[in-house]
Write a structure and sequence with these properties.
Layout lengths: L1 H6 L11 H12 L5 E5 L7 H9 L7 E5 L4 H16 L4 H13 L1 E6 L4 H5 L5 H10 L1 E7 L5 E8 L4 H10 L8 E7 L3 H15 L4 E5 L2 H7 L4 E7 L7
Parallel strand pairs: 1-2, 6-7
Antiparallel strand pairs: 3-4, 3-8, 4-5, 6-8
Helix pairs in contact: 2-3, 4-5
């Protein structure tokens, strides 16, 4: 995927699964489980939620709760891990939903863009904005607001120590003396991302740090060398 993204002149396009895709998956799950919890991209950014909701309404005798994660990538991963922990603790379906809704409020993802090239290629912003950003050596940090809309949370200027400064930016978001988890997702820059992983393992322990790669859906727009860090505060609020 990453080779094609960089070298193929035809930029990839993204599309959500159809209601039929979800219905078949839910029907399969119904043969093995009593209920399902389906956690997705924010509805404001993707039609995936609507497809899942449409499919869930066609089911009988199989309770399926569709949840807007208000997150992306590894942020959704951290939320899903908490859901799995609640399941393993033998909580009821409703108790698990309550836990998920609470943890969503305390999970935030920040994505550092190394370049705006791929967002321009995907038609998300104009070439003129990229030109200005390039002149300023500006690197946007994207996040999501309370509605799930993707917004610019901040900017870093210049390439020198860019990723070290991104770590410091993230750490300012974490309340002092709080317990938290970190999720790291990279855009085909594993070696750099492993340094992030090592940094946070030294701070909070290996069991609280999760590592992955940015998937093609987000990668199409974020591009190579993008870096996503999700912060999940335990029973607290993330700093603005």
């Amino acid at each position: 995927f990453w080779d094609e993204l960089q070298n193929n002149p035809v930029h990839p396009k993204t599309s959500q699964p159809s209601p039929g895709d979800f219905r078949r998956q839910y029907q399969f799950l119904a043969t093995h489980y009593e209920s399902a919890i389906s956690i997705h991209l924010p509805a404001i950014n993707s039609g995936t939620m609507q497809s899942a909701l449409t499919a869930s309404k066609t089911l009988t005798n199989f309770p399926t709760t569709v949840i807007d994660s208000n997150s992306l990538s590894i942020g959704i991963g951290l939320i899903a891990i908490r859901a799995a922990e609640a399941i393993n603790a033998n909580k009821t379906h409703d108790e698990i939903i309550n836990d998920i809704n609470n943890v969503i409020k305390n999970t935030k993802i920040y994505i550092l863009l190394h370049t705006l090239e791929y967002i321009v290629r995907g038609g998300r912003i104009s070439k003129s904005k990229k030109t200005i950003a390039d002149l300023l050596h500006a690197h946007p940090i994207l996040s999501l607001d309370e509605t799930g809309k993707i917004v610019t949370d901040g900017k870093l200027f210049g390439k020198r120590n860019l990723y070290d400064r991104f770590i410091k930016y993230i750490e300012k978001k974490i309340p002092p003396n709080s317990q938290y988890r970190i999720g790291i997702a990279h855009g085909n820059c594993e070696q750099r991302a492993r340094k992030f992983e090592k940094h946070f393992i030294n701070k909070i322990g290996k069991e609280s740090v999760f590592f992955s790669q940015i998937g093609p859906g987000l990668g199409t727009h974020a591009g190579t060398n993008a870096m996503g860090i999700a912060v999940q505060i335990q029973d607290n609020q993330i700093n603005d």
